Amino acid sequence: MFSRKFSRSIAVGAVAIAVAGGSYGIVSATSGSGSTASSSSSAAPSSSSAAPSSGSAGGSGGEASNARSGPAAGGAVGTVDSVSSSGFTLTTSAGQKVTIDEASSTTYEKGTSPASVSAVTKGEPVLVLGTTNSTTITATQVIVQPASSGSSTTSAAKVIPFQEGAPTTSKQVGQIPASYSQGSGTIVSGTAANKATEAALAAYPGGIVDRVVKLSNSEYEVHYIGVNWPHHVFVNQDFKVVGAD
After folding, report:
1. By CB distance 3.0 to 4.6 Å, which of 1, 82, 93, 189 could disulfide with 206?
2. Which residues are CB-contacts of 177 (< 8 A; sequence separation ≥ 6)?
3. 71 and 98 share one domain
4. Are 103 and 138 a contacting pair, CB within 8 Å?
5. Is a pLDDT exceeding 90 seen at residue 55?
6. What's the pTM?
7. Domain check: are 71 and 31 in the same one?
8. Contact partners, residue 200, CB within 8 Å, separation at least 6
9. Pair 177, 228 in one domain
10. How far apart are CA 158 and CA 155, in angstroms?
11. Which residues contact 28 (CB under 8 A, 6 or more apart)?
12. Within this chain, do residues 122 and 237 fall inside the same structural domain, yes or no?
């Protein structure tokens, strides 16, 4: 009798341990799953912290400055260095090398007249508008011998070329929107982005525009890479440059 009772007690205890162990396993799995999700969430970098640093081509100003998830509308102006069957290369006035990829949909102008791809030759000044990805632009429009623009209402200020190891230049010219904060605004494309890019490059040639951001006051921040200064060029609703920093 004692032996049967003892054996039964052992069996009941084993079942209790097994059940408890199973419960612990479920709790552990649930807890592990939650911590994994939490870890994944915390490990995913924010768009601002993932932005590349300023100064170098592809930089974003070294701050939470309208970081983007992919290529965006922009452009560059410079002199054609070489031409190939798929595009050409140019150098900006600040010495930045840019690769231009052409597509079947790319349009061309020479001055203000329609042109063909043959208008792009070595030594010609060109304005390129398109999708910027670091120092490569997939061109939607190429303007050979672009007309100069007097769009800038700021004091004359030269672009400061990027130099490896040189400290970032920090200065302001003209008017900076009072409501502006780095990282604010919405990235835009299309006609608005093209007009803002053209205005900025006419006022401050030398950099590469890698995105255009519409601010809360309906003005635009045009973001430069490949130069030490400026990093941001501000364009009003009439597409006139009003300031830079």
Report:
1. 93
2. 215, 217, 219, 234, 243
3. yes
4. yes
5. no
6. 0.70
7. no
8. 209, 222, 224, 233, 235, 241
9. yes
10. 10
11. none
12. yes
> Over the stretch 85-94, which tens digit does the pLDDT of each residue have?
999 999 999 9
**Looking at residue 122, what is its pLDDT?**
98
Does 37 share its domain with 141? no
Strand ranges inside 186-240, DSSP E? 186-187, 208-214, 220-225, 227-229, 232-235
Measuring CA to CA, which residue among 44, 64, 42, 68 is closest to residue 53? 64
125 and 192 belong to one structural domain: yes
Same domain, yes or no: 107 and 130: yes
Structure tokens at 193: 């982005």
Average pLDDT for 23-32: 35
CB-CB contact of 78 with 88 (8 Å): no
Domain of 10, in residue numbers:
1-44
Q: Is 134 exposed, middle or buried (0-12, 13-18, 19+ CB in 10 A)?
A: middle
Q: What is the pLDDT of residues 129-151, one digit of tens each?
A: 999 999 999 999 999 999 864 44
pLDDT for the residue numbered 173? 92
Q: Supply the DSSP string of 57-91, one letter for each residue.
A: TT---SSSS---SS-EEEEEEEEEEEE-SSEEEEE
Given 27, 44, 61, the domain boundary residue is 44
| 35 and 121 share one domain | no
pLDDT at 4 over 50: no
Question: d(Cα 173, Cα 232) in Å, to the nearest integer?
Answer: 11
